[in-house]
Amino acid sequence: MDLNLFVWRQKRPDEKGAMERYEAEDISPDMSFLEMLDVVNEELIKRGMEPIAFDHDCREGICGMCSQVINGIPHGPREKTTACQLHMRNFKDGDTIYIEPFRAKAFPVIKDLIIDRSALDRIIQAGGYISAHTGGVPDANTILIPKEDADTAMDAAECIGCGACVAACPNGSAMLFTAAKVSHLAVLPQGKIEAARRVCVMTEAMLKEGFGNCGNHYECQAACPKGIKVKFIAKLNREYIKAQIGIK
Amino acid sequence: MLDGKCPSGPIHEKWDRRKQELKLVSPANKRRYKIIVVGTGLAGASAAATLGELGCNVEAFCYQDSPRRGHSIAAQGGINAAKNYPNDGDSIFRLFYDTVKGGDFRAREANVYRLAMISNSIIDQCVAQGVPFARDYAGYLDNRSFGGAQVSRTFYARGQTGQQLLLGAYAALMRQVRAGSVKLYPRTEMLDLVIVDGEAKGITVRDLVSGDIKCHAADAVCLCTGGYTNVFYLSTNAMGSNVTAVYRAYKKGAFFANPCFTQIHPTCIPVSGEHQSKLTLMSESLRNDGRVWVPKNKGDERPPSEIAEPERDYYLERKYPAFGNLAPRDIASRAAKEVCDEGRGVGPGGYGVYLDFEDAIKRLGENTIRERYGNLFEMYERITGEDAYKQPMRIYPAPHYAMGGLWVDYNLQSNIQGLFVLGEANFSDHGANRLGASALMQGLADGYFIISYTIADYLALTKPGSVNTGHAEFRRSIEDVNASIKKLLSINGRRTVNEFHRKLGRIMWEYVGMSRNEDGLKKALAVIPELRAEFWENVTVTGSGEELNQELEKAGRVADFLEFAELMARDAFYRNESCGGHFRVEHQMPDGEAKRDDEDFCYVAAWEFKGINKEPELHKEPLSFEDVKPAVRSYK
After folding, report:
1. Which of A29, B62, B411, B566 satisfies CB 3.0 to 4.6 Å to A89 for a cystine?
2. Catalytic position from the list B329, B344, B532, B584
3. Is there a catalytic annotation at residue B329?
4. Are A178 and A66 within one domain?
């Protein structure tokens, strides 16, 4: 199939960018979206033009590196699917596709579709961990964890840190990302001890990075490639209130 | 003759003995030492976090935008440990035995035993960090079985075990960044190792955003940079996975061990066309419930549902009744290639076999299968557009893991003092074939539980901060790196970097792939240098060096693959035997199994760089087996 692409091109962080038009010809429905971009780039290079810069790595939907807004939706039209796992059979011959970087105040554009997401790392640095030193820990079966709790923790822990939730949010909030980590650790007995401090410092770090507040739009859940639920935001809020009033 | 410097004594006492012998650095002195860790996958993140916790100053580098994205994140199935929770006869010795046998007696016994010993501590550590492993209804940890083992010793977190373990190590690392003991350098690629007076004292890196070339000096360097199977172009590795860091260390004198030992994983989604940029693995755990088959008749193009039971060949169950669909990876991969070469392959192009869940769904119900493998079935559907609950998956082998890597001694130190190599980047534990769920185990064993002890022994004899980046070797390194970047940008040829990489991949898959022979390897040794010469005359790299330039990054990596490929082919040529993943068609049993030659090849082949277009020098580390008697590896 042949496609009409409008792609965000921006040479440097401080330069103004613009949408530019490209044609993608002879695209196979079995290609992934990024393989389609590879084909466009090969063509550009052969014509001596600069290829489109975009982040990608594992190409199997788990590293969280790809960060494109496709036709207005982070990671594109297919739900629970990263851009690298989106295949061209989801498009039709002659389609026009708009490709932009994830946009948020806290995610400055570095080049073309590549953004700086280090703010998410800094939220984790603030306290998104259990302070367990290497060695000196009890046998793994000493503390039993009910299956439902382990499953809930895993539901939250599946977050790949791509930032689609931020890009989808009208407020540019990182609540779903932060809530996923807070919830993952707060439901586990090992993580409960630091839960109150964790939720406070992580929330504070999130606001300091320039992410907005949650306005209950739920766009984050719709955009999340791993299907992380907004119920974890409710969990974060509960943990936060508990911490503020000193309930253990 | 190379010496692995293993401790003496009975195998189960070796590691404890070594720990007693190793020198310590006092807590007050630790902060005077600086350690560079390159790569932040399981090995790198766990090493950087642990060394930081102990008080060293650590600088951690990765080419991704965040240390959470190392390719360990993509490991699906699980991590082995000898806990024997299921009470099914497992033990440290059995895990050790299975790993040595699985590696076809080409690994160092003492290293493997230590790995099996440490395996249990890893599970404890990860649980303490909050890794949400699967549990049963009583709250205990759950296990499943994996290829090459007859016990259930694999711990898992749905189909994302690697992700959860890496996020655990990443969290520990982030904690140290917060504490100030680790400084992070994301989007930074190592392009050279700096050696001063014979010892590794720093690295030269490129900032991938600004293009700046800079040096970092340290008291020791740890390379945790993963494997090199992207030499095949198509592999299950991430697009950015590369050989550059270890290859450039090799060019500075580090020995490269067993480069021809690469693993072809049996359960990947088949290639769909020329545009293919990578191959996607479907976890080996699927073989617990899926049955592998092809039609008995050649060229049978009927849909699978129309092929009746007697017309199907469940070839793994037929050939290996004791292990069945759980035969080790190298054996399962070759068996798939064999039936496809016979013309019995399925799907477009005929390079695929079925992995069928019909019986398991009948036996356990669709819900159980969905619970166990739901995310894998979804991933399969996204890529192929097919529903594996209704029709069998199609799978085919793909390059997946590098057992070979930089040579290290028992202390994980290379032949260059001060250079330590961890995880997939070293060669030490998996011999000629790695068993499933053992890579995660090794990465974390090296990073959490070995390096902190062994590196101290080196540091104790080193004056902290003895070298800084003002040294002439650092200036020279910067000049060399700048010169090679300038050269790449000035060729202005007519072919893209990807075209060269694809072509190299085809050569490697054809001649240095799943089965190898003398003529093919000679051919590879002839055509790889030709392709390399053409690359340096005709490649085109757009843009400049002073900006974010992904073509330039790729070009540097492919340039190294073009040299490394020759080393790999040479090693495969010299290893005139079959063992594990290295299958020389000249050496097989009457039934087609790999035929080892313990008389002549029971050694580690460690290669020393002697110049481009010059033959490297072979050093041998003899392997002796005291606790597991080398035998014909049988899974029948």
Report:
1. A29
2. B329
3. yes
4. no
> Looking at the complex, does the CB of residue B97 fall below 8 Å from at least one CB of chain A?
no
pLDDT tens-digit series, residues B544-602: 999 999 999 999 999 999 999 999 999 999 999 999 999 999 999 887 789 999 999 99
Characterize B109-135 residue by residue with b for buried, 16 or more Cβ atoms within 10 angstroms of its Cβ, and e for exposed: bbbbbbbbbbbbbbbbbbbbbbbbbbb
CATH code of B561's domain: 1.20.58.100
Range of the domain at A90: 3-111
- What ranges make up the beta strands (E) of B69-117? 79-80
CA–CA separation, B503 and B628 (whole Å): 42
Asked if B271 reaches chain A (Cβ–Cβ under 8 Å), the answer is no
Contact criterion met (CB < 8 Å) for B65 and A12: no
Touching check for A48 and chain B: CB below 8 Å?
yes
Neighbours of B152 (CB within 10 A): 18
Retrieve residue B503's tokens: 């072509």
| pTM reported for the whole predicted model | 0.97
A65–B69: do the CB atoms touch at under 8 Å?
A: yes
The structure tokens listed for B627 are 């606790």
d(CA B58, CA B180): 9
pLDDT per residue as tens digits for the range A161-170: 999 999 999 9
| CATH number of the domain bearing residue A31 | 3.10.20.30
As for how many domains chain B has, the answer is 3
Return the pLDDT at B349. Answer: 85
Asked if the ipTM is above 0.95, the reply is yes
| Angle (CA) A64 A69 A75, round 5° | 45
B255 or B77, greater pLDDT: B255
Q: With bands split at pLDDT 50, 70 and 90, how would you rate the model's confidence at B422? A: very high
pLDDT over 80 (residue A108)? yes
Instruction: Tell me how crowded residue B622 is: count the other CB atoms within 10 A of its CB.
Output: 11
Residue B541: which domain range? 472-622
Kindly report the number of other CB atoms within 10 A of residue B255's CB atom: 25
**B276 to A35: CB separation less than 8 angstroms, yes or no:** yes
Check CB contact under 8 Å for B140 and A141: yes
**What's the gap in Å between the CA of B220 and the closest CA on chain A?**
21
Q: How far is CA B73 from CA A137, B40, B102, B498, in A?
A: 24, 11, 24, 25
What pLDDT does residue B165 have? 98
